[in-house]
Amino acid sequence: MIQSSPKRPSVAPMPETVLDHLLSSLCSTANISRAEQVRPAAVLWTDHEGQWQGVAERLRPLLPELLILGDYAPAERRGPAIWIKCMLARTLDEADWPDNAVPILYLPGVSRTDLRAIQLSKCDVLEVLAKAREAFTTDEWKEMRDDTAFMDRVHALKSGRSR
């Protein structure tokens, strides 16, 4: 008597490459059961050592909702925290990803521990803004046409350095 081999259960095809698998994982991360949880405002992708930067760059054209923390380059969907905040609020024209997509924030140089440790009090923020108001002349405000120049100046003020 010949025994037939047991039937294999049908399995969904696996993504072909690591990039495909990562893309699939990122897209499915925000897909939650609406009956059980609230939709997240964003998916945070931390990368303390920056090991995924090359991969994030390759994913950028495939995921219009992928925003990268870094130097101000809006055409590359990269910018400082204030730019990311504006993108999440959809106050900028380049925030043009689909309405049903959850933004993915790639944070090179930031660890999960760093995120947990952030405890910037309102007093610190107000102090920096007060110094900025006192330190900037009207002409300086006019010269600062992008967030990077503003943030560089604020960081200099916060650390006690002058221009």
Would you summarize the structure shown here?
The protein has 163 residues and is an alpha/beta fold.
Key structural traits:
7 helices; 163 residues; single chain; alpha/beta
What does this structure look like?
By secondary structure, this protein is α/β, with parallel strands linked by helices. The protein has helices spanning 18-29, 53-59, 81-88, 112-117, 122-135, 138-143, 147-158, and strands at 43-47, 66-69, 78-79, 104-108. The protein is built from seven helices and four strands; from the N terminus they run H-E-H-E-E-H-E-H-H-H-H. It has a four-stranded parallel sheet with strand order 1-4-2-3. Helix 5 crosses helix 7. The protein is globular and about 55 Å long. The mean pLDDT is 75.
Beta-strand segment tally: 4
- Which residues form runs of ≥5 with pLDDT under 50? none
Q: Name the structural class.
A: alpha/beta
Amino-to-carboxy terminus distance = 90 Å
SSE pattern: HEHEEHEHHHH
Strand content: 5-15%
Radius of gyration: 22 Å
DSSP helical segment count: 7
What percentage of residues falls in helices of 4 or more residues? Answer: 25-40%
